Every structure is written in C-alpha cells, then in structure tokens.
Amino acid sequence: MQKHVTLAAVLNIVYRGLHLFLAIGLFLLGVYFRDFIWAILQMAHAPMHEIPFEVFDLVPLILVPVSVIMFVISAAGITGGIGLLKNREWGRIVLLVVSFFNLLRIPLGTMLGVYTLWVLMNDETITLFTPAAAAPATKVP
C-alpha cells in the first residue's frame, strides 16, 4: 500500500502544480484583461466606438477570485502531497480534503480524486499513518 500512497502523492503534486500555473495565468489575465482585449481589438482593426467596454470590467471580478481560490487549493494539494511523501498524518488529511475538490474537475480530477480517496481511506493506509504504527510502544518494566 505504500506504493499507492507514494503514487497518489506524486500524482497530486503534478496535477496541482499544473493547476497552480493555470491559476497564476488566470490571475494575470484577470488583472490585465482590459489591456489584453484592447490590444486584440486594435490588431483586428475592430470599430472601437461600437464596443461596450463596461462589460469588460466584470471579467476581472470573476477571474481574480476564481484564480485565488484555485491557487489556494493547488498550494494545499502540493503541500499535502509533500506531507504524504514524508508519511505525515496532516498530509493525509489535507489530501483527503483536496481530493473532494478534485472530484468536481471532470474527467482527470475526478479520476485522481477517486483514486486518492480510495488510497487514503483504505484501512492499511490508516494504520500506516497512525502514531502507534509509527512508534511502537515499549513495555516499561
């Protein structure tokens, strides 16, 4: 079961690392959206007087909070994966929480979330991460 735990940790680190870069890209797009659209419209030689630029002010209000949420969840997933590789109980708990968010990201996130939940909720894995299994009790004479 240790191989499954390591695989789940590595897969979560890679998957969440990609989402971390996506979150940074969405944040930058949200912050510079108006300039980005302005440059595209100028390159396309679009008639600027017909475009309602007030609508473009709503896009950053959506992209920036979504990207911040993605960044936080991705950072938590990477941190939990590293904790899981170091056999820490908190890493297991963090990845359990992040795996529920992964279930919403169809199809790859759902597959990763189901696999991670299966690995981390397995009885062998739970006993692997319990403090009693990490340090066997010694009898006092």
Explain the overall architecture.
The chain is an all-alpha fold and 141 residues long. The protein has one domain (2-126). It is built from seven helices and no strands. The chain has helices spanning 2-31, 33-43, 58-85, 89-102, 108-120, 123-129, 131-134. It is rod-shaped, with a radius of gyration of 22 Å. It starts with a helix and ends in a 7-residue tail after the last helix. The model has no long low-confidence stretch (mean pLDDT 88).
Features of this protein?
mainly alpha, 7 helices, rod-shaped
Average predicted confidence as pLDDT: 88
Question: What is the count of structural domains?
Answer: 1
Indicate the percent of residues in helices: over 70%
Question: Ends: how far apart?
Answer: 35 Å
Instruction: Estimate what percentage of residues fall within beta strands.
Output: under 5%
Note the total helix count: 7
Structural class: mainly alpha
Number of E-type strands: 0
* pLDDT < 50 stretches: none
The major sheet is characterized as: none
Query: What pattern of helices and strands is seen along the backbone?
Result: HHHHHHH
Radius of gyration, rounded? 22 Å
Shape: rod-shaped
